[in-house]
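Exercise 4. Each item below gives a protein and its sequence. For each, produce the structure-token representation.

Item: Protein MSS51, mitochondrial (Pisolithus microcarpus 441).
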Amino acid sequence: MLFCLPWCVDFVQVQSTVYANSMFTRSALLTALRRSGRLPACNDGFRSAGKCRTFLNIFRNLRPTSEPPPALNDNDLFHPFSKSPFPAVRARGETIQSLALCPVCTSESKHTGGSPSRVKYECPDCGWPSHCSEEHWEVDEEHKKYCSRLREVNEDEHDLRRGRKMREFHLPGPQAYEEAISFANWDLFWYTRGFPSMDTERSRRHATKLLTYPLTIGSVLHQNSGLTLNNRRVTPEGSRSLAALRTTLHVPPGAPDTEEAGAAKPQIRVFILGARAESSLPPHVWEQLCMLFPSCHLHLFFIGPQVSLPKPADEAVAQDTKSSASSTTEQREECKESPPLYVPNIYQPPAPKPIARLKRTRSSVQLYGFPSYTVPYTPQLTVTGIQANYSEVHGQFEETFDPYTDAFFLFSPGFGFPSMTSVSESNGIPLLQIASPTEWGPVIPALLASRCSIFVTGFSPEDMERDIRSLGITPNVAGEFEWVINPGINIFGSEKWEVADFDPRVMVKANWGLWAIRGKGRQIRKW
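Answer:
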């Protein structure tokens, strides 16, 4: 029932007894409940007036609570960044003006040798700071090619903040074991999993951005995955690696895939290396993985210098005490949106803001030696975050890796980008990140030695090509791996454009592509 009335259950029990014995009338039943204290007694004055509140009209005066109207309606989502009603959007516009250069000035400076100006003029069609002046905006024909995408992102950002009920973020519960899940595309997955209907393209973009990280993992590891030998996305070596993982993730054919069936199974560990924004997703979003694999216990490890950590315990307790002791007026003032400090999405952003501290969150500093936490969120899902480079904690896991229970996921790691901290000793040219001793240099050979599958995503075709080419020229990596999944489009990539603050012309989609490798096997013959 919708209301927790302590006497409702007793009323149903008494009523069933009365109807079964056919001995009491309705008035006698109500009298018995009033005498027992399970139903409020009627005032004598109101009883004589015939206004006694009986069970039949108990919900008559209750009115459903109405949700506050959103700050913007559907036809008022477009606003220039400088005139946005939301402080976060205005702050982002100021950040872009301080970082981005005018594209027209940049092209002219190549011939004249002058320094380009910062963007100050906001395009009236997309609302983004795009040029240094209106004159340069008018002569730039290239801007029209991507202006519609920028306007789309502008409206999406305002839609997320306007305060409407986000139906696309309502996630379904457990899947019945006799209901199969399709991983053919987003639409079939939402339908077979029972998600709310995505009626608009904007709803699709919001939902895919939220779910792309857990669904990329789930769609690769699940036995109903669309990546197969038939479509040549999975190699023969990869089919053996995936089969090893799936023997642990699923139950034998014919057995019900339920939580009880996995009582004797080993734990599945998924290491997400170089984690950034994905580490700040709420645990109930990652719980969707448990709905795909009901019979296994998942342990997610977020490892990287930019992993989000929960708020300190004393700070969380202080906030709870303050909120419980404050008045209603003070609570409303605290709930008002304050101008947030926007973090630009530049090359190396700082660690994200602290995430909410859950009830069962505990510190793991003594276990790993670095700022870390562990949350046993459900009996099937445990989340651990370690704010450190993976090379610093590899020794604690090195002897425990098993291709049947462990897998690595690297979301847009940037192997082929030049390092910001390491240069070549011979010519002084910056090393690639995959060869940098302070970044991925010592990590990838260690992962290949474990023989576990390494799944990598890219945010564009150029990004994937750049990362894959770097594999063939890096010492201790070139010739030491074999393909598990051939490079290609990731069906469960995000459909929302992500715009770079340092140049609004740069737009990508998270987890656009996917490929995977593992350490090369060695066959030993005895003579």
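Check: The chain is about 35% helix and 15% strand.
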